[in-house]
Amino acid sequence: MTARIGVVTFPGTLDDRDTQRAVRVAGAEAVPLWHRDKDLKQVDAVVLPGGFSYGDYLRAGAISRFSPVMESVIDQAKAGMPVLGICNGFQVLTETHLLPGAMLRNNHLHFICRDQKLRVETNSTAWTADYEPGQEISIPLKNIDGRYVADERTLDMLEAEGRVAFRYLDMNPNGSLRDIAGITNAAGNVVGLMPHPEHAVEPLIGTGRTDGLGFFTSILKNLVGAR
């Protein structure tokens, strides 16, 4: 039996179908999860996809953090279940404090949509094992509240513990401190990033490359190897 990866849909989620397809392209079973249901349907991992959940009212991810499904996601993540937050999903993960820091409005105050080059900083997570440290990849980026911030103590901790997962290359598109595009928790099972790997899993769409597929093959191998 293949791995089952849940994809959560909140009101305002945009990229749940794309994420489900990316999961299937990698060879796993995509399991839709509705925000009002606490039941995670016995999935092996969870993805919180991109979009504008609850219209980003109050603050991006602030309301979604209190959805019933998130109670279960938080509990399971703390118990070791792999969780990936993409864009709005990353914002939700910071709101739940599964990941440190916060996301603010882009420093230029505009929505940005572009192919973005990243450098992989670590492959010691459940979601990045199929990459090499220092590898450069290109995947789509689209956000208006994508500026990662944290206090200096937290930033130094992330650097010292090797928890910066990705950095922006060539340009910093939103003013994120230390060019941080994605981070991981200490255990390596929870990863969040602003760019969208689910839009770069097939050569005919997105960037025309498959640089994002590694996220989904990484977790599949992680789950299969754990059985």
TrEMBL record:
GO terms for biological process: 'de novo' IMP biosynthetic process. The lineage of its organism: Bacteria, Bacillati, Actinomycetota, Actinomycetes, Kitasatosporales. Part of the phosphoribosylformylglycinamidine synthase complex involved in the purines biosynthetic pathway. Catalyzes the ATP-dependent conversion of formylglycinamide ribonucleotide (FGAR) and glutamine to yield formylglycinamidine ribonucleotide (FGAM) and glutamate. The FGAM synthase complex is composed of three subunits. PurQ produces an ammonia molecule by converting glutamine to glutamate. PurL transfers the ammonia molecule to FGAR to form FGAM in an ATP-dependent manner. It is found in: Cytoplasm. Gene3D superfamilies: 3.40.50.880. SUPFAM superfamilies: Class I glutamine amidotransferase-like. It catalyses: L-glutamine + H2O = L-glutamate + NH4(+); N(2)-formyl-N(1)-(5-phospho-beta-D-ribosyl)glycinamide + L-glutamine + ATP + H2O = 2-formamido-N(1)-(5-O-phospho-beta-D-ribosyl)acetamidine + L-glutamate + ADP + phosphate + H(+). It holds the Pfam family GATase_5. Keywords: ATP-binding, Cytoplasm, Glutamine amidotransferase, Hydrolase, Ligase, Nucleotide-binding, Purine biosynthesis. The gene is purQ. GO terms for molecular function: ATP binding; glutaminase activity; phosphoribosylformylglycinamidine synthase activity. Part of the FGAM synthase complex composed of 1 PurL, 1 PurQ and 2 PurS subunits. This is Phosphoribosylformylglycinamidine synthase subunit PurQ. GO terms for cellular component: cytoplasm. NCBIfam families: FGAM_synth_I (TIGR01737), PRK03619.1 (NF002957). Its EC number is 6.3.5.3, 3.5.1.2. The keyword Ligase applies.
